[in-house]
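G.,

No rush on this.
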Amino acid sequence: MDELFESRKYGQGYITVVPIVIFAIGFVLLAMAGGAFNKHRRDVAKTTLKKQRIDTVLAQYNISYTIEIFFGKKYHGTQEVAVNLNLKGV
């Protein structure tokens, strides 16, 4: 009879450990996603600041521009990109 209680005692540990492991894995994945999102936000903020600086300088010289970006096919991790930049006032 003691053997029956011993096996239950060990079996109940799995009920507690499995949700904790799932929670830990989910937390790690969420942290990784949050880190990638924060990096993207920082990169966008830097790029926006650089664009504003360029626009400020060009406005002082009465230069305007239009830009068109075309994304082509992706070959082996390399993306084809075509840029059409038109300057007005140069």
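When you get to it, here's the other one too:
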Amino acid sequence: MDFSLSTYFPVFIYLLVVLGIAGSILVITHVVGPSKKTAVKLMTYESGMDPVGDARQRFDVKFYLMAILFLVFDVELLFLYPWAVSAYAAPGQSPEEGLLPVAFKWPVFWEMMIFLATLAVAYVYAWRKGVFRWR
């Protein structure tokens, strides 16, 4: 294989064009855009809330519970999506052509059902404990 500089010449040209466009956009917005600095524009942005008071104040435990529940139910998709993609063959393919061996299809299916049932129990438990109720 002959890898000379001429092989990568179009890539270098493309990189130069991309950097040129990005740099010119930054310069144009700095020159043309409004630059009137006001107290409101210079104020720190804190998730749509005015930054008043001490930054080290105590938060309600509900925020942490909601974040942990979000992570639990978000990580669930990391297990479900690959299984859903690999467990079944595409339309028009035989079952043997799927990514998952035929011998594992039913055990993996029941394992995923147990996983979903565990998540459902966790959801009902959190609901009964009142984690989803805001004051």
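Residues 15 and 94 are 45 Å apart (CA to CA). Helices lie at 9-32, 39-42, 61-87, 105-129.

Enjoy the weekend,
O.
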